[in-house]
Amino acid sequence: MLLEACVFSTILLGFWGMLFKQNLLMKTIAMDVMSTGVVAYYVLAGGRKGLFTPIFQPGRAVDYADPVPQAVILTAIVIGLSIQALMLVAVMKLSRDYPTLQVRDIETKNMP
């Protein structure tokens, strides 16, 4: 129960940061915190007692964990990392074009 509370608080903290932080770098970090919380939730939900790592050993008759959710989570981690890198490049490009990372300042400079 405590782990679930920590995971949900991590997700909510990241969501709060994405909504209320005005700095683009902080928004990007908040997005990473939220995606880390989501991955931790799936890992927490997938972990069950009595299941073993799906590595076959002859003569060992036990229940193995399904490897498909693990592969999906690994794919989600890789995709999250690539999105994070793309967002950081976009923030770097914006910081080069505008001398600030504040969202409101960039929006006011682009108003017609």
Describe it for me?
With 112 residues, the protein is mostly helical. Helix content is 71%, strand content 0%. The longest helix has 31 residues, at 67-97.
Summarize the structure in short.
This protein is mostly helical and 112 residues long.
**Helix and strand run:** HHHH
Distance between the termini: 52 Å
Give the fraction of residues assigned to helices.
Answer: over 70%
Gyration radius (Cα, Å) is: 20 Å
User: How large is the count of helical segments?
Assistant: 4
Which sheet architecture does the biggest sheet show? none
> Could you tell me the mean pLDDT?
88
Shape from CA axes? elongated
- Class derived from helix and strand content: mainly alpha
**How many strand units?**
0
Low-confidence residue ranges: none
Strand content: under 5%
Task: Summarize the topology.
Elements: H1 2-20, H2 24-46, H3 67-97, H4 103-109
Helix pairs in contact: 1-2, 2-3
Core attributes:
4 helices, 112 residues, 0% strand, 71% helix, mainly alpha
